[in-house]
Amino acid sequence: MAEPLESESSLLVVVLDVNAGAWAQSALPLDRALQQAVIFINAYLALNTENRLVVLGTNAHECRYLYPAPGGGAPAHDVQVYEQFRAVDARLLSGAAAMVDGAASDGAGHSLVSRALSMALCHIRRTLSSATSKVWPRILVLSAGSDSTREYISLMNSIFAAQKMSVLIDACKVVGPDSVFLQQAADITGGNYVRLDAAGSESLLQTLMFTCLADHYTRGILNAPGNELIDFRATCFCHKRVVDIGFVCSVCLSIFCQMAPVCSTCQTKFSFKIAGAGKGRPAAAPAAATASAPSAAGGTPSAAMSSLNLS
Length: 311
Ligand SMILES: [Zn+2]
Ligand SMILES: [Zn+2]
Hints:
Blueprint: E1 10-17, H1 20-23, H2 30-47, E2 52-58, E3 63-67, H3 83-102, H4 113-130, E4 136-143, H5 152-164, E5 168-173, H6 180-189, E6 193-195, H7 204-212, H8 216-219, E7 245-249, E8 255-256, E9 305-309
Parallel strand pairs: 1-2, 1-4, 4-5, 5-6
Antiparallel strand pairs: 2-3, 7-8, 7-9
Bound molecules: zinc ion (2 copies).
One zinc ion binds at residues 236, 238-239, 241, 256-257.
């Protein structure tokens, strides 16, 4: 990735997790958090007049653009407020309120963060391919919901796509325990990860200003908050346990802590044929079976569960 030589314009995609179920557990109410997020976004827009902004809202059921709002009319004119601030404030607050009201129930408190990241990356790709001057893209995830193992594969795919596109992912976990997925996203893409504990949730704006406002160039000068304690082990899909050694489905790459005859993610049946039996080779234990590739003779590919050291 080429390093910026001076401050240039940025494209920031903010992913706002408005999962009402998760925010209900927070010491900081959602409306106050949104107000602080709006102040941060205004500060970002004020840093450089060419800075571009997209805000996506996500909850347990959907992801949608909050800014720029598709087909949204211009909010009422107010001479006291800078035009762009007013447009962002009005659309973001009303869009987020509509998502909260529209959600029937946010169930277990998981939000569609991977879907929001995919939308963000598509938007960034489109913008960069039509941009005439250099734009530095980044994503900020304001997360409230907990990690969902269903999202693991799509989230990791998004993270690696972001890394290839030189998109920084910053993550701020406002509610609940650490998100292992977002920690990995920030670390792999060179962004910052911060979690507000219950006592510090009032400091959301301060945290965002100090850790997520600086552009690509300025980050080279600043000392980012360290994240030495990131857990890079994978999480098993069956019990959400972090595993050192697990079993990997050769079809969908799901990870399991114990061997099973059928992959619970993609329903593939595993063949536990003893490799090399009758051919003079020592019989391999099923746990150590390796993924078999489709045979050149046109035989059907057989799936296997491979044991893998994941740490
Ligand atoms: Zn498990
Ligand atoms: Zn599978």
